[in-house]
Design goal:
The complex is a heterotrimer. Chain A is mainly α. Chain A is built from 27 helices and 2 strands. The longest helix of chain A is centred in the last third of the chain and has 79 residues, at about 595-670. Chain A is elongated and about 135 Å long. Chain B is mostly helical. Chain B is about 75% helix and about 0% strand. Chain B starts with a helix and ends with a helix. Chain C is built from 3 helices and no strands. In chain C, helix 1 runs antiparallel to helix 2 and helix 2 (about 30-55) runs antiparallel to helix 3 (about 55-85). Chain C is elongated. The chains are: A mainly alpha, B mainly alpha, C mainly alpha. Chains in contact: A-B, A-C, B-C.
């Protein structure tokens, strides 16, 4: 008895929730919207669990054919669901974490300062979230690259919609377009990556004659390796776009403009891991050409270190996590690049747990500060009543940034539950045993040590910095004395927020057990799909484990020396800045990558656009071609047609015809003599002619 | 050359002569009389062709009624002659030429089409008898026959209406 | 017996003479009589061919022609009477009001 036939419901449940909210969400209020949205995702989670249970009995899964989609000549792409251990892993992560984040979002959006008792935008939020889950499910369950691409674009769209959710505002809540611009940036950067992915698909279809996984992947050995390298590198472009790797990562930090649940769900736990999933899914392709795998690994490792350096110097609590996400995605990409597919997937899962936890925790922190700063918005907190009831109160307090860690401090006393779960997430990310991050990161590092020393070195350095910046964040946010009035008055978040945090904290603690060394159940699980070549158990290496743990502890110690021993006072300059000087300035300014892109790509592009608009379109095309060539030419042609041709030739013809007609009729009128005998003669003449014709023709 | 053929040629000469007489008589009364002669000879031809009923109709209706009507009108109007005027010069020769062309065409037809040269077979005994014509008229051609009566009625009424003196107008003139 | 072509020739001659009469005479009544002559020529041919084909329909047709001719003559002569009454002439060349 298996439940594979139920698999389409992982897409349809979120879609049903979406439709219900679309129709009734605005009318029945936020509790209704949140319940429908959450239940939809939870139902999908239940279906995913059923798939998981079915796979226990039939570990090789099944392809569930739902409908024909494209059927043109040799190209046959059905809407089929690929149920195997890999896709079910992703389903479980997406729907599981997704459910928790939906619950969280119900509480978070209610207290969001931008939310003004507007059930419409509340419902809209859950509609987008459900749409995202549906698209993500299509992505992970599709049986072909094209179905994967449908989901790939769908999640990209949802990402765009949700980053720009408060589209008329800036990230600090004031009126403006920065959120929309961040959404636009994410979309455009993703388009660049999608372009690579599309090329990869074209090449795949050209080389393999199909886009289905079950027809492409087993034939990887039969195709010219250079073509596979091209496919793999084009796919890498797609991966760098979607999974925020160098050089296309720049959209992810800006994507933090979206509401925090979105950052947790889309930009940390699920969507950005789509690139990793793509590489793991295409393991036979990447495995066939180690050169391409090396490129992928180097890109991932460099991204991991690069983003980690930037994360060190960020002051925005969510930006730190954003760069941390890029860094951790770099770990995963590096892992799949060196062929450690299981380690990459393992890190993907554990990262989904603790990074979602960290984002949600940061959301809880931000909310605590916001509610303290804008007591009016916590409309349930009656005792915080203020006199100036003002719709636009946020404009009065524009300078305050509730996401800036320099505005925090000492929050462990105000929001103890958030503090505890956040600490768990931070330690898991830092990779301290026995938390989830330790096992997965250790497995990556061990594989890297065997595969590529350069990658290992880069990743180890990144891991060191990871522990450091997470330590810095903990000290800055939760220790010391409150540096602002809002931090002093911060209020703990409601249970709808804390319960998901608690569950994720538990997962962050025990998540490592799914692939605990020696037993490595996750490896065996994925081996059913990937095969033994690509899913081999990593032998636990105590040297690597101890080395990285010690490094993490040293990093945390350094962060304590800098930020913990003598807590930062209000308005004080970051102590690291004095020691690192220029280096810190680079980290703080994200190594000027945005500026670089601006100077190298965007400004030349704008100048090109301006050139095209002003010179080519306006002056050349409009002024010269349209006005001079076409306009004058047409005028001249028209004049030519009007005067010599029309008035001369055509009028001449008609006048001539008229004259001919007049002359003829004048001549014919002579025939109209009025004499009957004349007429009779003519009739007789006709009769003679006709008879003659009849006689001589027969 | 048998009697019938001699009779044919004599009658044909009379018919053509009568036609020419009608054509070239100055006096309309003579013309009418020549035409009556022509009709009479044609009636004889009808008899020769086994059409006694048509021959009788020709004599009574044409030669009798219609030509009498002509004479009546000619004499009523006193328009036996019309005075000569300057003719339209080309009308007469052109008419003659066309007539000759028509005759030539007919001759060509006669001499090229062998089927028209066939000798007539002897007719059936009751061929063309008034009885058989009458049967045909009252069975197969009943509708045209009845329509003919309406036509004649209409012609009668039309003639009366046309000729009737407009009392008001003529009264005004007088 | 007489060949049908003889009747054909006679009929053609009579018809041609009738047509010539229509074309060269100016007296409306004589033109009328010429038309009657043409009709008669046609009748003769009808009867001749009816005889050749042993088909009485030709004779019936001649009967109808005679009836129509009678009607035509009645109306035509009435018209001539009216025209004469108005113009005191039956010279057909006088009646050229339709001159273009």
């Amino acid at each position: 008895m298996d439940a594979f036939a139920l698999v389409p419901w992982i897409v349809f449940f979120p879609l049903i929730g979406l439709v219900i909210n679309l129709a009734f969400g605005r009318r029945f209020g936020e509790v209704f919207s949140a319940t429908v949205g959450t239940l939809a995702v939870f139902s999908a989670f239940v279906v995913a669990v059923l798939q998981f249970l079915s796979l226990q009995a039939h570990p090789h899964g099944q392809i569930v054919h739902l409908a024909d989609w494209i059927n043109i000549g040799g190209l046959q792409i059905p809407w089929a669901f690929n149920v195997d251990t890999l896709s079910v892993t992703m389903m479980l992560v997406v729907s599981g974490v997704g459910t928790l984040i939906h619950i969280y979002a119900a509480g978070y959006m209610h207290y969001d300062v931008r939310y003004k008792e507007d059930p419409g935008s509340f419902a809209r939020f859950f509609i987008y979230l459900n749409l995202f889950i549906a698209a993500m499910m299509i992505l992970v369950s599709g049986n072909s690259y094209l179905m994967l691409f449908v989901g790939w674009e769908g999640v990209g769209l949802c990402s765009f919609l949700l980053i720009g959710f408060w589209y008329s505002r800036n990230p600090d809540g004031s009126k403006g377009l920065l959120n929309s611009q961040a959404a636009k940036k994410a979309f455009v950067a993703n388009r660049v990556g999608d372009f690579g992915f599309l090329l990869a698909m074209f090449l795949t279809f050209w080389a393999f004659g199909s886009l289905s996984f079950d027809q492409v992947l087993p034939n990887a050995a039969n195709v010219e390796p250079s073509i596979i390298i091209a496919i793999a590198l084009c796919m890498l472009i797609g991966v760098t776009g979607k999974s925020a790797q160098l050089p296309l990562y720049v959209w992810l930090p800006d994507a933090m403009a979206g509401p925090t649940p979105v950052s947790a769900l889309i930009h940390a736990a699920t969507m950005v891991t789509a690139g990793v999933y793509l590489v793991v899914r295409s393991a036979p392709l990447f495995g066939a050409v180690p050169e391409a795998g090396n490129v992928v690994a180097i890109v991932g490792a460099v991204t991991a270190l690069f983003a980690a350096t930037i994360a060190v110097a960020q002051n925005d609590i969510k930006k730190v996590l954003a760069y941390s996400t890029i860094s951790q995605l770099g770990f995963m990409v590096a892992a799949v690049g060196i062929g450690a597919y299981v380690a990459g997937m393992f890190h993907l899962v554990t990262h989904a747990f603790f990074k979602a936890l960290l984002f949600l925790g940061s959301g809880s922190v931000i909310l605590a500060l916001e509610r303290a700063h804008h007591p009016l918005d916590g409309h349930h907190d009656e005792h915080h009543h203020d006199d100036h009831h003002d719709e636009h109160h946020d404009d009065h307090h524009a300078p305050f940034d509730p996401q800036d860690m320099r505005n925090m401090g000492g929050l462990r006393k105000q929001i103890p539950t958030t503090y505890r779960v956040y600490l768990i997430g931070a330690l898991a990310l830092a990779g301290l045993p026995p938390l989830a991050g330790f096992f997965s990161k250790d497995e990556i590092l061990t594989d890297a040590l065997h595969a590529n020393m350069l990658v290992w070195g880069l990743l180890t350095a990144a891991a060191f910095l990871t522990a450091f910046y997470m330590g810095r964040q903990i000290w800055l946010v939760f220790f010391g004395e409150p540096r602002t009035k809002a931090a002093k008055e911060a209020v703990e978040s409601p249970p709808t927020i804390l319960i998901p945090l608690g569950i994720l904290a538990v997962l962050s603690v025990f998540g490592g057990l799914i692939n605990v060394p020696v037993l490595h159940p996750f490896t065996d699980w994925l081996e059913h799909t990937l095969g033994h070549d690509f899913a081999h158990a990593t032998v636990f290496n105590f040297g690597v484990a101890i080395f990285s743990t010690v490094l993490a502890l040293i990093a945390i110690y350094i962060s304590w020396r800098l930020y913990g021993r003598k807590p930062l006072a209000a308005g004080e300059v970051d102590p690291l800045k004095q020691r690192l000087g220029f280096l810190f300035k680079g980290m703080e300014n994200k190594w000027w990558v945005d500026e670089l892109y601006d100077a190298v790509i965007i400004q030349p592009y704008r100048r090109l656009a301006a050139f095209l608009a002003d010179v080519v379109d306006w002056r050349f095309w409009h002024d010269w071609v349209h006005d001079t060539v076409i306009g004058r030419g047409f005028g001249a042609l028209a004049r030519f047609l009007a005067e010599p041709v029309d008035m001369g030739v055509i009028d001449g013809i008609s006048k001539g015809l008229a004259a001919v007609a007049t002359g003829l009729s004048r001549g014919f009128s002579l025939l109209q003599s009025g004499y009957v005998r004349n007429y009779a003669l003519m009739v007789f003449f006709g009769v003679v002619l006709m008879i003659g014709y009849l006689v001589f023709s027969s | 050359m048998n009697v019938e053929l001699i009779l044919f040629f004599v009658l044909a000469a009379v018919a053509i002569g009568a036609a020419l007489g009608m054509l070239f008589s100055r006096n309309a009364v003579y013309s009418a009389l020549f035409l009556i002669l022509n009709f009479a000879t044609v009636a004889v031809f009808f008899l020769l062709l086994g059409a006694p009923f048509i021959a009788m109709a020709q004599v009574t209706v044409y030669a009798g009624a219609i030509m009498v009507l002509f004479l009546f009108v000619i004499m009523l109007l006193g328009a036996e002659q019309i005075q000569h005027q300057a003719r339209r010069g080309w009308q007469r020769p052109l008419a003659m030429l066309l007539t000759l062309v028509l005759l030539a065409e007919s001759a060509y037809l006669i001499f090229t089409r062998s089927d028209v040269l066939t000798v007539l077979p002897p007719a059936a005994s009751d061929y063309g008898s008034p009885q058989s014509i009458g049967l045909l008229l009252f069975s197969e051609y009943l509708l045209p026959f009845e329509v003919t009566s309406i036509l004649l009625l209409a012609a009668m009424v039309g003639a009366i209406v046309l000729v009737k003196e407009d009392k008001k107008k003529s009264g005004g003139r007088k | 017996m007489i060949p049908i072509s003889y009747y054909f020739a006679l009929s053609a001659i009579l018809f041609a003479l009738g047509a010539l009469g229509v074309l060269i005479r100016r007296n409306a009544i004589i033109i009328f009589m010429s038309v009657e002559l043409m009709l008669n020529a046609a009748n003769l041919l009808f009867v001749a061919f009816a005889r050749a084909n042993e088909a009485l329909s030709g004779q019936v047709f001649v009967f109808f022609v005679i009836a129509v001719a009678a009607a035509e003559v009645a109306v035509g002569l009435a018209l001539i009477v009216v025209i004469f009454r108005n113009r005191q002439s039956i010279d057909i060349d006088e009646m050229s009001n339709l001159k273009g």
